[in-house]
From TrEMBL:
Keywords per UniProt: Cell membrane, Membrane, Transferase, Transmembrane, Transmembrane helix
Keyword Repressor: no
UniProt-recorded name of the protein: Glycosyltransferase 87 family protein
Cross-referenced InterPro entries: GT87, UCP010361
Highest taxon listed in the record's lineage: Bacteria
Coiled coil ranges: none
Chain ranges passing through the membrane: 68-89, 96-115, 135-155, 167-196, 208-232, 270-291, 297-313, 325-354, 374-398
Length: 429
């Protein structure tokens, strides 16, 4: 139901007329902002050779001004192939939106099923969540969300050895890297989990890293060999991306008056990733402290906290990134107040940003004192940022929801602790 509503929400921007390039009219851009039905899927139909059905990366590149050509899109290769497949049989942006929705809907359904198997009724947070209506077909994010949720499902519901489960989960995270990059950050906490569960198992930890890296290479190398310039252009595009209104991050809204300065943009290329790495290290370290107390490394909670650091500190914070975070609200026990507040802030940001862009493009007053649009946008942007800081700590202090249903074998830490306490039975301990 929510996937159908998500498609219907975005389809409001399609048609009823189409120009020679298959672009919807009349006044496509104005309507998409005014009616809050904008989607990257429909918008990128023109300008990336998607409408010309050019296979991505092989023959393209990037110009000095940052323009992509020859079928190159600014996403990793598996997403590029998905985009090409969605455009294969259609000739308008409306057809492209519909075919892309049909391609991605099974991934959204799979996420719901996996979350249901892991956390039962709590999976309704995904299945009935407003972000699914707002963002399911805003961009190509359902497949990458599926890869990360599938990794958790394999680790905690598949009946196999730890070595086999962790290897398959690492492969899934490697596939996620080839879709949208961010699942790669979950490899490190997974390594630490395998290392600790296996009794300081260095071989198992490196097997996880090797499996993820090998998967990423196997997917990317054929494209690099077929057209290195086009393949590298997608990464170069992201590395060149500047902090501006299109990034919608705290860096833009907090330093808006500085964004025209070249020195500021160069500094952001260092400060933003540097702070993200600090947040990742902090999350992993706190997770290690918790392991020393409990005997189990909380890799899912650490992954959730790392994602909060990424969303807060990255140069880009696109609206649909909420889909990345939503499964962790299902998988980790955080207070309902956190979840409700985040969804409200996200809704305020989503509606506020597009209405604000509409007012700006129309030359109408859009300042903070000119109406609720700008106020809602600021509530969304800064409320979301504050909540991400709080959620970083809340995730690390919480337990997973699937712990309520599973009684795993004692960890090596717990087993060794029982063995080392003389004169006490395991029952007493």
């Amino acid at each position: 139901m929510t996937l159908a509503l998500g498609y219907a929400n975005k389809a409001r921007c399609t048609g009823p007329e189409f120009n020679e390039w298959g672009r919807s009219g009349p006044d496509y851009q104005t309507r998409s902002y005014r009616d809050v039905c904008y989607s990257d899927i429909q918008n990128l139909w023109v300008g990336r050779d998607i409408d010309r059905h050019v296979f991505p990366y092989v023959h393209g590149g990037i110009d000095p001004d940052g323009s992509l050509w020859g079928g190159v899109v600014e996403y990793p290769v598996l997403t590029g192939v998905l985009i090409w497949a969605g455009a294969f049989f259609v000739d308008t942006d409306a057809g492209f939106l519909l075919s892309s929705a049909l391609l991605m809907a099974p991934f959204g359904l799979a996420v719901a099923w996996w979350l249901g198997r892991l956390s039962r009724w709590r999976a309704l947070l995904w299945a009935l969540g407003p972000p699914v209506v707002l963002y399911a077909f805003h961009n190509w994010d359902l497949p990458v969300v599926a890869s990360s949720v599938a990794a958790v499902y394999v680790m905690h519901r598949w009946r196999a050895s730890l070595a086999r489960r962790s290897t398959v989960a690492a492969v899934l995270l490697g596939l996620g890297f080839a879709l949208k990059l961010y699942p790669a950050i979950f490899v490190l906490p997974l390594m630490l989990y395998v290392f600790t569960e296996g009794g300081r198992d260095w071989r198992g930890a490196w097997r996880v890293a090797g499996s993820a890296v090998a998967t990423g290479l196997l997917v990317n190398v054929p494209f690099a060999l077929a057209g290195f310039q086009g393949w590298a252009a997608s990464f170069e595009f992201q590395s060149r991306r500047q902090v501006d209104i299109s990034t919608n991050s705290v860096w833009y809204w907090g330093f808006r008056n500085w964004t025209g300065d070249e020195g500021f943009q160069d500094a952001m290329g260092i400060v933003s990733p540097g702070l993200m790495l600090v947040s990742f290290a902090l999350a992993c370290w706190i997770g290690w402290l918790r392991y020393e107390k409990t005997g189990t490394y909380p890799w899912v909670q650490v992954s959730a906290a790392m994602l909060c650091g990424f969303l807060l500190l990255h140069k880009v914070h696109s609206p649909q990134y909420t889909l990345w975070l939503l499964p962790f609200f299902v998988l980790v026990h955080v207070r309902w107040g956190w979840i409700a507040a985040y969804l409200v802030a996200d809704f305020a940001m989503c509606t506020g940003i597009f209405r604000w862009l509409y007012l700006n493009n129309q030359g109408e007053p859009s300042g903070i004192h000119d109406g609720f649009t700008a106020q809602a946008l600021m509530i969304g942007v800064w409320g979301r940022a504050a909540l991400l800081i709080g959620l970083f700590a809340a995730f690390l202090a919480a337990r997973t929801t699937f712990e309520d249903r599973v009684n795993p074998a004692p960890s090596n830490f717990a087993r060794s602790s029982r063995a080392e306490v003389p004169g006490r039975t395991s029952r007493e301990i």
